Amino acid sequence: MALSTSSNFAKPDDAFRAIVEAHRGLTDAQSADLDAALVLVLANHIGDLDVLREAIALAKRRTLDASQQQQQQQQ
Amino acid sequence: MASANTAQAKTQFGYRRHPDQDRSGANVAEHPVVVVGAGPVGLSLAIDLAQRGQRVVLLDDADRIGEGSRAICFSKRSLEFWDRLGVGDRMVEKGVVWSVGKIFHGASQLYQFNLLPEEGHKRPAFINLQQFYAEAYLVDRVEQLPEIDLRWRNKVIALESRNDGVALTIATPEGSYQVHASFVVACDGARSSLRQMVGAEFAGQVFEDQFLIADVKMTAAFPTERWFWFDPPFHAGRSALLHKQPDDIWRIDLQLNPDADPIAEKQPENVRPRIERMLGHDKFEFEWISLYKFQCRRMARFIHGRVIFAGDSAHQVSPFGARGANSGLEDAENLAWKLDRVLRRLSPEDLLESYHIERSAAADENIRESTRSTDFMAPVTKQEARLRQAVLSLAEDTEFGKRMVNGGRLSVPSVYDTPLSSGDRDDWRGGPRPGTSMLDAPVTEPGGGSSYLTEAFIGQGTRFTLLTFGNGADLDVPEGVGSIRVGGEGGLVDAQGLAGKRYDAEPGTAYLLRPDGYVAARFRNAARPILDAALARASGLN
């Protein structure tokens, strides 16, 4: 596994907060634009396709899990 | 919309009856190779085979070279191939040489790239040349070669595969006749009728966006560069391309909306205002207008028994990247020497399988690259459009953003992962690894004349050739193998040091080049047994 999923920030709350605050006051469309640019900037900074692919897989699994849970709750 | 500019090139040819047409039954003519389709690929293949001493029958169902400019960008690699066929100079003299591309977003330039930023190559990154000129020059060359029997208005209407070859039924203005061929090469284009005759599928991705191509004649002071716009002021929300061709002709490519009405869009009175907005004036005339959608697809197998497919008949890509005609020419060069060896029984028929392996992998690469360009130009989903917008805006102030902008990645020769290569056994810090096309470099002949490695390769007869570097012991070169020596007594002089640098050469370094100029193997010290083994491998003999 090339992707690091251990906690890398000394103050994780600060990092989360920084991202949240970046979205404050934005419309959904503006937020989506911001995220798109941010993903590209960070992906380039990582500069490792294996890490990027693992990150995509991990993020995508969350999305799929969430939609499956939603379906189960509806049943 | 045929042009007066075509007058200097012969484009109309007559049908002539051939004695083969009077033969039938057990008496039909037998030919080693029949090439179907006299476009750039079929013509180049026929010339290559003929220069290797093969007799070739070349059939075309028309009696003229196609109208419109169609392919316009011919790559360095294609020019090097055409040099080997004796037509490179004519192409380059007529063509518009270019290497710089610029990408614009809105009204401002995002960045520019140079496809050949270094000196010391005989040929430029690209020339732009109307396809009909290329075809006309190739036909002129064909007419110098008695080995080629070019038959216009000869249309293959039936094909029957046999163990030892193929029986073709050919329709002419005077009725049909049959010939038998040991091998048939189908270079009959994207709508290949031979592909249908062998029952092969041609599956892939269809793109919904429509593009308008117009060749316009005007005198303009734009530089000879490839200009590509995302969301230009004159064509909001879509993309556009401007490119110069010979004879003051400019290629303009405009992306249309997917729901645009193709008939209406093609009318000159509808096209004219768009182009006036683009150019800022109305002083131009139309040479050719065409509207197209494109597909990216390929045949699963390029070889069907003794019928071999090359060029658009085997694979189709989007036009953004100059990967259509150029990849077809690479097919032709890849196939010619192999087919020649098989016909001479120097190599087993299995050698042809390497054509399929190498060129189908190249087709996959071309399809992948051109699909990515197309998806970038015409994003499919809302989020894809958002990501593209993010790239375009990041490109304004970051280097990584500029590199991510995809306005077409232009054709470069594929690197083959192939059974014909012998893997590196020595340490290399650079240079073309096995499976890579040879690199050009300037050299000086012992007599003082300036030359290039690509010219030295032609001088050796465009066959298996050993390229060796300086001061090593004189190598005992196997029979039938050419030899280019750089450095040492009587060798070519690497005055600028570029040949040595590009090939990561040390004294004794040797590269075994295939007849298509690809590297088969390389050695720090080439002893005969390992050289012989590499040669056998590259010839399909083990």
Automatic annotation (TrEMBL), chain A:
Could you tell me which Pfam families the record lists for this protein? DUF2783
**Top-level lineage group:** Bacteria
User: Could you tell me which InterPro entries the record lists for this protein?
Assistant: DUF2783
Protein name (Swiss-Prot/TrEMBL): Uncharacterized protein DUF2783
From TrEMBL, chain B:
Tell me its cofactors: FAD
Keyword Lipoprotein tagged? no
Q: Name one GO molecular function term.
A: FAD binding
Is Manganese found in the keyword set? no
Q: Which InterPro entries match?
A: FAD-bd, FAD/NAD-bd_sf, RIFMO-like
Q: Which SUPFAM superfamilies match?
A: FAD/NAD(P)-binding domain
List where Polar residues composition bias occurs.
1-11
Q: Which Pfam families match?
A: FAD_binding_3
For this protein, the parts annotated as crossing the membrane are none
Keywords tagged on the record? FAD, Flavoprotein
Q: Give the residue ranges for region: Disordered.
A: 1-28, 411-446
All copies of the FAD-binding domain together span 31-369
Its name, as the record gives it, is 3-(3-hydroxy-phenyl)propionate hydroxylase
- Species annotation: Bradyrhizobium macuxiense
